Amino acid sequence: VKSEFTAEAHTFPKIQAILKQKTFTYQFAQHQANLFLELASKIQDGQKFLIISHGGVVDIPLVFLFPNVDPGSWGPLFNYCEGFRIQIEDEKIVDFKLLRTN
Q: How far is CA 10 from CA 6, 7, 34, in A?
């Protein structure tokens, strides 16, 4: 299966446009989001978990999780040691915070 996510899709807004097509990349992002929720369901209140990624794997589900937010203000895609923290309430992802090295 070929993904629509190519080397040219190096911005959050371009990822958002690709996800709106609801093809393979959308399915991938949906799967990743479900994994985040599954992991969160296995920890106790107050605990945290860390997902370490490389090469855009966390950029795509972040855009998926917040489709009504304009990702144009988020800056460039994540670099090494960067990512995001999600807030989950009542088994739903409700907010996020970008974690940048600068």
A: 8, 7, 24
Smallest Cα–Cα separation from 62: which of 89, 90, 87, 45? Answer: 87
Write the secondary structure of 9-63 as one string of H (helix), E (strand) and C (coil). Answer: CCCHHHHHHHHCCCCHHHHHHHHHHHHHHHHHHCCCCCCCCCCCCCCCCCHHHHH
Tokens of 3: 């993904």
Q: Is 54 exposed, middle or buried (0-12, 13-18, 19+ CB in 10 A)?
A: exposed
Q: Per-residue pLDDT for the chain (102 aa), expressed as one digit of tens each? A: 456 555 556 899 999 999 999 999 899 999 998 998 888 888 887 778 777 776 677 899 999 999 999 999 999 998 888 888 888 887 778 889 999 887
The total of other beta-carbon atoms located within 10 Å of residue 79's CB is 11
Instruction: Give dist(CA 9, CA 22) in Å, integer.
Output: 16
